[in-house]
Amino acid sequence: MSTAQIRKALSGFYYVYDNDQLIACRGRGILRNRGESPLVGDFVDYTVEGNNNGTIDAIHPRKNSLVRPPIANIDQAILVFSIKEPDFNTILLDRFLVVLESFQIEPIICLTKSDLMDEQMEKTIAEYTKEYEQIGYTILMTYKDDPLFDEKIAPLLKGKVTVLAGQSGVGKSTLLNTILPSLDLKTGVISEALGRGKHTTRHVELIAVCDGLLADTPGFSSFEFELMEKEQLSSCFPEFVAIQDSCKYRGCMHVKEPKCAVKDAVESGDIKKYRYKHYIQFLDEIIDRKPRY
């Protein structure tokens, strides 16, 4: 029995990467009986049963997993947001950030279409960039045909399992297509990885790039708060976490409680009002959520 990572799932087979080769495996029946389903990114114990064939015997504990795309053990997500067309949107960005924080996935904010900025937008984006960096987030700005793109992105991908996320039309596929050629891949292979051309079967695959692994699926669509309890929400705002031990009441929700350090920080400007406003909006969504059965 050996231990390896699943790098691809397709047509009922799980392809584990071991000794520089992919081995097609099926899940053992006992996994199905337990209701366990392997995911791309899982570390598994498997048994070789033939030439490049095997059976998955056990799935190692995961640090996280997503439903869409179905992938496990993600280190970070590149959040792709355009500055224009569509316009930069802080509430949507914060929604993504909160969900990623809840899964313990580190976000990297990648701003695209900077070549479309006018002078006023440039000032606005510079201010937002400063504010999010002060919270602790990494921000990467790209523009069309950026000659230094590889130098900017490669260190961020090294040694990490990365997924791409962001709304439609912001340039996720373009970004993915820009990253993959650093592997000197042929155009046809890139098209297949992007699910285009003749190979239209959608599958999740981890591709080795820049000394890390990148999920080829340009989509992270589960950004609702369906799995989050209201008590968890404040822990997904790093600037709240940094000071909430100073609140008078343990378990403070930062809404109506007196002597709340978070509300005081909002009043003083140490926490931005739009971030707090989004927190309240997300909290209301969670409270108003219909119960799941």
TrEMBL record:
Intracellular or extracellular location(s): Cytoplasm
- Chain positions recorded as Zn(2+) binding sites: C247, C252, H254, C260
Q: Is Protein biosynthesis included in the keywords of this UniProt record?
A: no
Per its UniProt entry, what is the enzyme's top EC class, as one word?
Answer: hydrolase
List required co-factors. Zn(2+)
Molecular functions per Gene Ontology = GTP binding; GTPase activity; metal ion binding; rRNA binding
What CDD domains does the database record attribute to this sequence? S1_YloQ_GTPase, YjeQ_EngC
List, for all copies, the residue spans of the domain called CP-type G. Answer: 63-223
Query: Which EC number(s) are documented for this chain?
Result: 3.6.1.-
Give the signal sequence positions: none
Query: Which coarse location class describes where this protein primarily resides?
Result: cytoplasm
Q: Where is the EngC GTPase domain?
A: 72-221
CC per GO annotation: cytoplasm
Alphabetized, the UniProt keywords read: Cytoplasm, GTP-binding, Hydrolase, Metal-binding, Nucleotide-binding, Ribosome biogenesis, RNA-binding, rRNA-binding, Zinc
What is the cofactor note? Binds 1 zinc ion per subunit.
| Superkingdom | Bacteria
Specify which residues bind GTP according to the UniProt entry for this protein. Answer: T112, K113, S114, D115, G166, Q167, S168, G169, V170, G171, K172, S173, T174
Pfam families associated with the record? RsgA_GTPase, RsgA_N
Query: Partners and quaternary state?
Result: Monomer. Associates with 30S ribosomal subunit, binds 16S rRNA.
Any idea what job this protein has? One of several proteins that assist in the late maturation steps of the functional core of the 30S ribosomal subunit. Helps release RbfA from mature subunits. May play a role in the assembly of ribosomal proteins into the subunit. Circularly permuted GTPase that catalyzes slow GTP hydrolysis, GTPase activity is stimulated by the 30S ribosomal subunit.
Give the family this protein belongs to, as stated in its UniProt record: Belongs to the TRAFAC class YlqF/YawG GTPase family. RsgA subfamily.
Output this protein's name: Small ribosomal subunit biogenesis GTPase RsgA
The species this protein was found in = Psychrobacillus insolitus
Taxonomic lineage from the root: Bacteria, Bacillati, Bacillota, Bacilli, Bacillales
Record gene name: rsgA
